[in-house]
Amino acid sequence: MDTTKQDSLAIAEILEQLYFKGLYEGDINLLRELFNPGTLLFGDVNGQPYAKTLEEYLEGVANRVSPKDYGTVFKGKIIAIDVINTIAMAKVNLKMYTFNYYDLLTFHKLNGKWVIVNKALTNVNE
C-alpha cells in the first residue's frame, strides 16, 4: 500500500475517532488532540461571518449542550480526502442540531502525526 493511501486512511480514522466523536460528545480534549494550537477557523453560519481562534472555538464547544446530551440528530460524513506529501485536505459534512455544515479541513503531518491547521466552514440550507 502506498503512503498516500495509508495517510488517507489515517486521516479518515482521525476524523471518525476524534473529530466526529469530539463534536458529538462535546469533548474538547479529543478535539484539542486533533488541532494544531495555532489553528484558525473561518467561514459563515447562516450567512453571518465566522472567525475564531482555536481557543475561542473550543470554549464554544465546551459551553454548549453537546448533540449527544441534547439528544439531537448527529451525522458526520467524509466526502473527500486529498493527500499531497505532508499536507492534506478533507471535506466533511456534519448534520447536527438544525445545521447542515460543510467543513474544509487542512491537515499537516507534524512530527509524524496528522493535525488540523485550518478549518473553513459553512452552513447550507437543505
TrEMBL record:
Pfam families: Lumazine_bd_2. Gene3D superfamilies: 3.10.450.50. SUPFAM superfamilies: NTF2-like. InterPro entries: FrzH/put_lumazine-bd, NTF2-like_dom_sf. This is Nuclear transport factor 2 family protein. It comes from Flavobacterium rakeshii.
